[in-house]
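TEACHING EXERCISE
Course module: macromolecular assemblies
Task: Read the component lines below, then compare them to the predicted structure of the full complex.
Student: A.B.
Group: 4
Components provided:
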Amino acid sequence: MAATPLTSSGLDLSWLDLYDEPASATPGKKGLTLKEINLGRYGDAARGKGDMTTRMRGAISRPGAQRFGPNYQSKADVWSENCIMLYEEATQRQWSSARDIPWDTLEELPDELERAMCQLCTMLTEVEFIAGDVPGQWMPFVSAQDFEAGLFLMSQIMDEARHTDVFRKRALANGGGLLAQGAGLGLRTLIEARDFTEMSVLMHVQAEGFVQSMFRMGELIGQTDADKRIFRMSAQDESRHLAFGVMHLKYVLDTEPERREELHHYLDKAEGDAAGGGSGDVTFPPVFESLCILLGGGPDKFDEGLQKFLLLRKRQINEYLHRLEVAGLGDRRQRVGPLFAQFVDPV
Amino acid sequence: MSTSEALAKAQVVAEVPQEARDKARQLGWEDGLIESALAKGFSLQEVWQALRGNVTGDQAKQFLAGGQMVRPEFKWMKVPTEWGIKARASDPELGLAIGDLNVGTYGDIPDVWYNRTEIARGSYPNPVNEDMGYTIFEKAIVWADCCVPLYEEAIRDRWISATDLPWASLEPLADDIERAVCQVMTEQSDRAYFEGALLSGWLPEISYGYLELKLFLSTVIYDVARHAEAFRKRALANGGGLGLQAPTDYMRSAQEARSYPELINILFVQDSTLLTLFKNGELFAQNQLERDLYALCAKDRQRMMDYQVERLKHYLFKHPERREEQNLYFNKGENRLAKDWTDPVVNEPLAILLGGGKGNIDEGMKKLRAFRKLQVQDYVDALAKATFYRTNLNGRLAEYLAD
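Instructor-supplied answer key:
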């Protein structure tokens, strides 16, 4: 329609007649958010069939629009019912590692403690680097019909960039440096995923869940006010990523229950067949040892630190199982991998 | 009771993972030693940590017989990385910036990065690691020094479409004007979202050697995400709606890129022309909200263009032999964008806005032609800043310059 000149002046103007459903979204308490514009034929509830073009949901199809390669055609493949809220929350809660961390409050630490903190930060800056690549890898497969999920993933990419940078900053700000590269951190499993939901359950729910449980023990791990604030601010971001993953999993299980065993299969692989540390494994010796030193308060209190490390691990596993239960995968408790099983609290 | 005692007490008959048995065999643990440790009250986790810590079979046996515990050696404390770094904010107003970390060996941005893993630049490499599948290991392909400060500036200058734009101030516009605004917004929303998704897909290609560049690209991705939703919000906030989707020719050409230089050069064409559009947004804006929206987008787009210009200049300096090849990518990008510009659904809304209504569209078309000239001139100037002088500018674009 649009390419055919209709008027004597060579103008088309037929696009002026496309507006059959006037939209007048009004700002709510938090301004004009995606929630306010999620209405009528523009809303996610009115999502039609995808078309593999770049057409955002609700825009009129262009005759002759080219396809851009395969992307997910089913909403369930990428959707999470909270992605609209989470994206806006992400925009409201962006923070700056440069200015929002009280770097000037860093105090000189005993050498072993500083080294332990730097080792942990070396691992974390590595982990967070991958955590940005992984959603990036999937963005081209998220249909513009489900653009809010895409917007959320793009906000996650920004969050992970900030985490990558803040842990690097911490390692280099207090008389230390970066130490040993992580290895066997289970990061390859994240990038190896061949399905969005597989990726999401491994990264958002498992790996980021473990990291979140660790960050929430930041008061015990951090040695300075700056450290503790880094963990608090990062935990806030991780909560969003985790919430996306849990609700995505729930959406899949609610709408495509036939995928339950398949999803268990991914978790069987991540928990059981391999080392059992899961994605974002903290049992890698430099990470395990540095955590024990930080939690104990020094290498001479390693045993005390080990007990707290085991508590951390217990917390990680039980929170992980609770999240899976919320998502509708409560039966995971009965088939969790052996290294996880030892930590599971009785019901 | 300690946590390990509690764990051991509560422990179900744990299945020992095969990988733990394999590792134990590798370290010379006798069959049954793992079970013996578990029977003595050690948790599977502790056994696993001992295995990961390379405790040998003899050491484990001695310990379980009442001998000395094998203490961790903390080898990671002794790795030969640069130590004693106290990075400080060089600009107190900006805070501790990533540029401030580039001291000593940590500031070496290598011309070629050889490590195929996700190792943090400056940390001590593990001797054996899996390849993570990155494909970009050369600085000249991606790097521009300005990406380091631009990352922090992007964070400092962030804005929120929901609350930083005066949505409540919108007032009804004449139908033709509102629909023209909505059509422009629909197109720009499509284009912004697409660019974010496209650039996101390239992140896993870039190795850790160029960490700061990836951080900067993350801000670009986040910026265009915000543009996509802000334009959509405007389309749905004032009695209009979404119009016809954007034309696909230009975007497909970016999608088709087989290398980062090709991708980024094709994007250069649109990044530049959109920057000119947004910088001159007051010509199209019908109210304060739109003026603010265009101005904020222009500020974001300026950072992208700063990167584009410096990257291209750096690339051409490092790879003079590939200068001619770049023309091919610019040819493609220009050709497809110029085609998009001939689409009435791209042109007519802009002409209505420039002319002040459907009734003045002829006047608007004249103004649009003059505006296209400005866009092309800015684009050619940006290329020249990058030391790239187009000798074969696309004919349609050249026509605008000839006006």
